[in-house]
Structures are given as structure tokens and as C-alpha cells.
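Worked problem 6 (solution included).
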Amino acid sequence: MSRIFPRIGRRRALQGAAAGFVALGLLLWWLLPLGEEPPSGTITVMTGTPRGVYQDYGRRLRNELDKDMPDLQVRLQTSDGSQENVARVAAGEADFAITAADAVETYELQHGRGADRLRGVARLYDDYVQLIVPRDSAIRSLADLQGKRVAIGPPESGVRLIADRLLGAVGIDAEKDIEPEADGIGTAPGRLQRGEIDAFFWSGGLPTAGVKELANSFAFRFVPIDAAVVAKLHKEGDATRYYRATNMPESAYPAIQNGLSVPTMAVSNLLITRADVDPRLTEWVTRTVIRSRDGIGQHVHSAQLVDLRTAIYTDPLQLHKGARRYYRSVKP
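Solution. The predicted structure is:
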């Protein structure tokens, strides 16, 4: 008997191992979209300005895409921001882009070239408006910007859209009633520190690297955006319906906020593409966006807010069919 049992044990062990390999293969097949090999080729993804969250998130997403699709070359392209990103994707000059929902709606309302081809991949995270002035500045509200030197963002940025609308809501014409500067987060902090401007607008995820870096060497504060102003814009409808009043949490920039939240305005960000982009590729990209949330979120705090339950809400764009296929595959 002692010679028979070891023989049976080895046989069963081999059978068990074989069954395990089969089960593992089936599991891998189930986890991979459609059980297919990863897509290959080259894609261009529009991000944003240096020192902004779009660029940081885009860089880290590319790393995750490289892991999931090693034969896919992902080219990142910097830009002025949301408005440029929407136009580049719509025109077929880029395949994917991060952009704010109000910029997408604005492009559609202006009947921009290729607007009807735009599609959503995922709702990502919210941008928060950050109006920054020196700590000893007399500017306490939007209305106090009258006659001041104010950086309102590059012409094709999402910041420019928001700054123009916020100023207009308090009766300030950005072209006539202030000295407008086209600086974004890449140059505005330095100019504020050198006294070349009195204030600058920024709209980005929390925290933004360019603002954090400024906090290390310069005393500044945030000007609150009154909820009534946001409500006024929201009621206008169209693109401004995506604006909502909120508070920038005290944890965003603790060295500056001293435990206090700041009333401000937020708008959601989307990952977008075009209807003609390969559905299988878009399905894989969508999967990577959702799967990589926690990993990217360790470095880009805003990415922690990417959520499977809200990612499907890409209004004003309908979901790309590849993205829709992914969401349906993981629906409980």
C-alpha cells in the first residue's frame, strides 16, 4: 500500500496542475477584453500645459497604457488646454484628449469642425477654479479685479473660457476693464512672484504642481468665488450649466489655506475621442483608465476620483461604442 499511494498522489497532482493551468487560462481570457491580443500602432493624446494636472495625469496614464498594450506607441502632446484639445481631436489631429465639459459644449455650440464626431471615453475628475493673489493684496473679490493686471490663460485654454465668464458675471469685460495677460500655470506663478501681474486664474485638479511650487517660495492667498456668481452662470445654461459651486478643501494646499476651505467653482473633466477611432482600442484604453485609478492616484491626487459608477457620464458627449462595450462588460 505504501508504494501505491505515492503513485496515485503524483497522478492526481499532475491532473490538478493541468486543471489549474486551464482555469488560469480561462481567467486570463475573461479578464482581457474579448480575449484578444492587445492593440498595437501609434496614438496621440493631448494633455495640457507644463506644471498642470492634465500633463501629469497624461504622463502616468501613458505608463499604464504601456503596461497593458506594450506594442502601442502613445505620443503625448502638450497644449494650451481644453479648447485646443477639443479642436485637435475633432479635426483628426489627435486621437484622445483630456478636456473640460464646458469646453466641449462650447465647441459644439460654435459648430466647430468635426464636432459631431466627438465621443466620450470617461468622466475623470473635477477642475477647481483657483484665483491667486499676493497675500497682502487688496483684491478680495472678483469685482476687485477691475483695472488690474490679470493672467486669464492662453487663448485656447479652458482657463480663458472660465475667466472670461466669471469676470463677465460681475460686470467686467476682460478685454476692456482689466489688463489681460495670456499666461497659464507655466508662467503666471513666476510673474505674480516678480510683481508683473496682480492676480492669475487657474482651473485644475487638486493640488496642481505649479501652485504647490509657488507656495514653497511665495506668500499668496486664494480669492473666494461667491456661490451666487456661480449660480448666475449655471442658470444661463448651455456650456455654463456644467459649472457648480463648491469649496476647495483645506487639504488642497495646507501651507496656504491654514485649515480653511475656499468657496469656488468646479467643472468636470472628460477623456474624449472620435467616433472613427477603433472600438477595440478604445475599449482597452477605457479599461486602463479605470484599472489604473489607484496607482495613478498615489501621485496625482485628482485621479483618485475616477470612478466606474460616474465614468460613464460623459455629457455633453455620447459614449464611444468601444467605451460603452467595456462598461457593459463590467456592469454588475
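Discussion: The beta strands are 41-46, 72-77, 96-100, 118-134, 149-151, 179-181, 199-204, 220-222, 244-248, 262-274.
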